[in-house]
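Format notes (please read before filing issues)

Several people have asked whether sequences and structure tokens are stored in separate files. They are not. Every record keeps both together, in the order shown below: the sequence lines, then the token lines. Line labels are part of the format and must not be stripped during preprocessing.
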Amino acid sequence: MRNDALIEAPIIILGAPRSGTSVFGETLSEHPDVFYANERRFLWRYGNDRKSDMLRASDARPAVVEYIRDEFARLVGEAGRRRLVEKQPANSLRPGFVDVVFPDARYIHIRRDPVESVLSIARKWKDAKGLRPGRTHNPQRGSRLAERWGELGWRRLAYYGPDVLRRSAPASMDRLLGPSLWGPRIPGLAEMVRELDIVEVAAVQWRMCVESAARFGATVPDRYMEVDVRDLSSETIRRILDFARLSQDPAVFDYLARKYDRDRISRRMDETPEPDRRRAQELTEATRIWLDSRNGHRSS
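Then the structure lines:
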């Protein structure tokens, strides 16, 4: 029988890819009460394999909700922890769906400078498509592949097997297998990749993630908090832990002091061609203005 206490008031980290969600999730993972579920992509898509990542509340059918809650409770219990912290950028596209699964969840939306986010997403796309010079096979991909197979199960291989293989293969296999898609699967992503340049694709992914998360946050203001990754500090972490109803454990602050490097967040931008920077700014400016102009959202 599932222990619902293990998935009571989970902390859901929202944010576009390459926005600092990983460093933030890793920081919270140091808390002794926390089990950190890092990008359980296929678990969230159970029962909706044919659809994009933009799931609706109506897609959270009773059997789907039961399965997802059972699996997360099992993971938390097996780890011997008491609170679930979950990070999956694609959940920014489907917060209404997530909220049906976890109606008492508390949401922390991590934001980063829009231009930096989009250009960082574009870099990951170029890695996935083999367009960046010097890309080599990552030895960790083998273990990642095994983890993905285990998460999928045999019945779902028909939907995701080819994509997992493409993501796990070295760049030399791209011509044979075809380049993989990367990041949240927004509707029409494959067609966009064929018709748009990489910066444009990255900007669409960023915009859809942050706009969806922010609009949802306005509907649950008491359970939603926004944090700029550049503002992560001991004081910010204190407020976040209070918001998440976690104790002020020293291990969290120690990890932040040892691992978080504000300069590293922006360091690679110096390597980006100026035309890409200008294009990223053009594509994100309207959303940035809207995000900055809102009133009433809870932030750090």
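For reference, the curators noted about this record: The longest strand covers residues 106-111. Strands lie at 11-14, 34-38, 83-87, 106-111, 224-228.
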